[in-house]
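INFO batch 0412 | record 1 of 1 | parsing
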Amino acid sequence: MSEILDELRDTLKESAEARALPIVTDENELRKPNTNVKDVFEAADISEQLWATLAARAENDVGLAAPQIGIHKNVVVIRAKAPIVLVNPTIIETDGETWYQEGCVSFPGIGVKTKRHKNIVVKVDWFGELNGISMDWLENQTLYFAADDNLKMEDDKGLLESVAVQHECDHLSGILFFDREWKNVTIKNETKVGRNELCPCGSAKKYKKCCGKI
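INFO prediction complete | emitting tokens
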């Protein structure tokens, strides 16, 4: 029985890897317009390709947008706290400004201090949430993503998720993290990331060996 299960797992892994697509790194391609998804079946198909691409990379990437794999549709996946899918998302409310040290799958090894919002409200046509090994889909949802001011920046998964949603939603509008650079940001000591701490961009590398190099 164990041999059968191992074979099944290998088959599923190979199937997922077969759906993986290369990451788009061309800036002109990333700035092209994207269109809304028409139904949940199309959304599910695109999200599967996004998850497969992340799985094949075997990195700790926090999120990915459809245009980053060459699909010009408004779908993003995020896995900051739990794996979720946002389909045709629109940020309708924002609150609280913050800086954040961001990386991007399409621009490996580059870090940018961006200007972001701590808390956001997002409307989506469909919201996908992992339930076991499958996604549950909910239609016409309003979602809240919020930071926890009681936590250090590097420990705040809520802030990471909020920033990741903003980052990936920007991709759907052809906006890159370079466009959000906060050049005159003043970093307070209590939010400063230590050189030997994990980089808040989600790379799983030490800050000094990732975004802290710039």
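INFO post-check: The helical segments are 2-19, 27-30, 40-57, 157-172.
INFO record closed
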